[in-house]
Design a protein that fits this description.
Elements (H helix, E strand, L loop, with lengths): L2 H15 L17 E6 L4 E6 L9 H13 L6 E6 L12 H6 L4
Parallel strand pairs: 2-3
Antiparallel strand pairs: 1-2
Length: about 110
C-alpha cells in the first residue's frame, strides 16, 4: 500500500469513527478522545486502541461492536482489531474543542 493510499484510508477511518456515539453522550468517540491509536498495516489489517469514559461503561460492548462493524466497511480495511485500554486513563482534557463546546465545558 502506497503512503498516499494509506493516508486516504486513514482519513476515511477517522470519518467513520466520527459516526460512532456513546449512547449516553451526544458526541462521537473520536471527538471525545476515546481513540488512542489507529494503526493500519500495509496489508489492510487495522488495529484501533481505544478507551471508554469509565471502565464499567454499560454501553461498552455496543460501542466496541459499532466501531468494529463500521471500520470493517471502510474500503481498503481487510480486518479490524479493537483493543480496549485504560491507560492512560481518559479525562475531559482529551476531548476536542468541538466536543467540549457541545457538552458545555467551554
Amino acid at each position: 500500500m502506497e503512503a498516499n493510499e494509506k493516508l486516504l484510508i486513514e482519513e476515511k477511518i477517522v470519518k467513520m469513527l466520527k459516526t460512532v456515539y456513546d449512547p449516553e453522550i451526544p458526541v462521537n468517540v473520536y471527538d471525545l478522545g476515546l481513540i488512542y491509536a489507529i494503526d493500519l498495516s500495509d496489508d489492510g489489517a487495522l488495529r484501533v486502541d481505544m478507551t471508554l469514559t469509565a471502565p464499567n461503561c454499560p454501553a461498552a460492548d455496543f460501542i466496541v461492536e459499532d466501531v468494529r462493524i463500521k471500520l470493517e466497511s471502510v474500503e481498503g480495511v481487510k480486518s479490524v482489531d479493537v483493543n480496549i485500554v485504560f491507560e492512560p486513563e481518559w479525562n475531559q482534557d482529551m476531548m476536542s474543542e468541538e466536543a467540549k463546546l457541545e457538552l458545555g465545558f467551554l
